[in-house]
Amino acid sequence: MNVLVINCGSSSLKFQVINAVTEEMSAKGLCERIGIDGSRLVYQKTGGEKEITQAPMPDHKVAIKMVIDALMNPKTGVVKSLDEIGAVGHRIVHGGEKFASSTVINDEVIKAIEECSDLAPLHNPANLIGIRACSELMPGTPMVAVFDTAFHQTMPEEAFLYGIPYKYYQQDKIRRYGFHGTSHAYVSGRAAALMGEDISKLKLIVCHLGNGASVSAVKFGKSIDTSMGLTPLEGLIMGTRSGDLDPAILQFIANKYNKSIDEVMNILNKESGVFGLSEGLSSDFRDLEDSKNRGEDKGRRAMEAFAYRVAKYVGAYIAAMNGVDGICFTAGVGENSPIVRNLVCEHLGFMGVSIDQDANNQRGKEIVISEKSSRVKVMVIPTNEELAIARETYALVK
Ligand code: AMP
């Protein structure tokens, strides 16, 4: 069965077609600048060339119609008719406390996702637009919602509560939820397979280090803590997000520079992180590495602060799980930056972590990068959130 995996943002839409039985991807692509001038579809059949089509996309329905047409194109498409798409899997950012697992989408589920929108005002409404557009264009095709927050619903109260008046949790559900759950679940599962052990016996830490970044503690297959919170702003220093800080900084900057809360939030989300620490040089670690290699402070300081924060979370989660068997690096930076992995692991020598530099310099595959003598296994595991969504979708509709 072919599963169309959709990740719908406010002005973009990423998609993949995955055969859920062979787990092979037949096509992937991206609609950019939906609702904005200059919109375009980037489409690539597996093994084929990238095709770029410039065309107006006033809304997501037009964008999804273009995706469907590209998938059915007699020359470069991958299906003859829509009947060959057995299901659609939607990535949904926030499932609140309502969703602890993926679910088949019906009117009730759509209403519940709507009700979570105040927790993710930028993401859930865009995800819902994708669901509605697909259900209009592909009526009768079953759809599944896969939530970024669901995997972390196993966090205990002591980990998810903030130290603020309890009524804000009771009345408003202000608590830590965590994100990147599909990736943390997938990577911890692959780590157990690579270690040749049953996940129900392992204490694992997953460092999902991409433009957005989070760490999770996965004890015996369940997430017991993770670094992102009510929103994806908490935790690690990220590409452009600040991560943890003293909340009083908001008031300080607002008062001193005469800014509104929204303006300060924009600084914390879009102008901070390694981008801010490198004085606006870049949020991309390739640029930061080049800067560090040129001997500049900008790149060095941003990378060191980033790695220190990751290592602090790893240390905290070793305490939370009372031990650790494996530490995994994944996502854009985690998979591709030997330097960042070294910087993080330098802080972990105290517990017998040592890295095999030859293994650490390899790319693009699942690999153990710790030395045989290392007391804790350190691994690089490429994440595959789309495959994880296709698997969840297939499991629910087959
Ligand atoms: P993601 O959000 O997982 O797609 O990660 C994107 C980020 O990965 C980029 O912004 C870069 O910082 C980082 N990245 C991608 N390729 C490399 C590379 N070859 N070396 C270092 N960092 C990389």
Folded structure, characterized:
By secondary structure, the chain is α/β, with parallel strands linked by helices. The protein has two domains: 2-147, ATPase, nucleotide binding domain (Nucleotidyltransferase, domain 5), CATH 3.30.420; 199-380, 2-Layer Sandwich (Nucleotidyltransferase, domain 5). Helix content is 38%, strand content 20%. The chain contains 15 helices and 14 strands. Strands 5-4-3-2-1-6-8-7 form an eight-stranded mixed β-sheet, with helices on both faces. Helix 10 (285-293) packs across helix 11. Bound molecules: adenosine monophosphate (AMP). Adenosine monophosphate (AMP) binds next to helix 10 and helix 12. Adenosine monophosphate binds at residues 210-211, 239, 283-286, 331-333, 336-337.
